[in-house]
Amino acid sequence: MQPAYILHTRPYRDSSLILELLTPEQGRIGCVARGARRDKQRRRHSLQPFSPLLVTMLGRGDLKTLGPVESAGAPLWLKGRAVYGGLYVNELLMRLLPVGEAQYAVFAAYQTLLQALAGLDGSSSEQLETPLRRFELQLLYQLGSCPPLGYCAQSQGPVATGGTYRLENEIGFVPVVRPANARRPAGEFAGADLLALERAVDSGELAPELLPAAKRLTRLLLAPLLGEKPLQSRELFRQVYRKQ
């Protein structure tokens, strides 16, 4: 058996479900839970998102058959806006992770994220910023989609604390010259912020003052990976909380 979390479910034939799982050894992987739609008690108690599971998968094809399933701990009940934070991350993983590749670091980061989200009361969107930005940065690093944050591509050395740097696709961070009080475009970052973000990725601790820079950076890096197709979880969040 191996640890797993359910990222997504969809109906399959008359009584089954196709599950998309996140596992450390096989990364994102799909399997058929035969009869799961008929067995409502099994669905209610075990086949739930954000619940740590131990699963067995049978078969050699890309789409496995789900064997015995056990709980690996108490379900993490997310509340309020934290539910949508969890759905957002599940959708990111569905969209970005390749199938069948080991993802030990991503799995560990996902567990840490869920524990952080479960500790929130979900009453405000601001509560989600730190755990989501931290996870996004860790995910982008593991995917090889985040350039070294403390490295200047032009000088081929460390970024300067007092410098300003622009993110160039396929290149990394290059220095730019701007007046001290000039407003930075979205694609430019203070050297001090880049160095602090680099330390934050390594330590897993993201200071509140770094959140604006982290959000700009992750949005820039995620945009080409996600393409033009909108995230359904983000649209659902806006619909639910639009008038609040």
TrEMBL record:
Pfam families: RecO_C, RecO_N. It comes from the Bacteria. Keywords: DNA damage, DNA recombination, DNA repair. The keyword Zinc-finger does not apply. Gene3D superfamilies: Nucleic acid-binding proteins, Recombination protein O, C-terminal domain. Residues 2-70 form the DNA replication/recombination mediator RecO N-terminal domain. The keyword 4Fe-4S does not apply. InterPro entries: ARFGAP/RecO, DNA_rep/recomb_RecO_N, NA-bd_OB-fold, RecO, RecO_C. Belongs to the RecO family. Involved in DNA repair and RecF pathway recombination. PANTHER family: DNA REPAIR PROTEIN RECO (PTHR33991). NCBIfam families: reco. This is DNA repair protein RecO. It comes from Microbulbifer halophilus. The lineage of its organism: Bacteria, Pseudomonadati, Pseudomonadota, Gammaproteobacteria, Cellvibrionales.
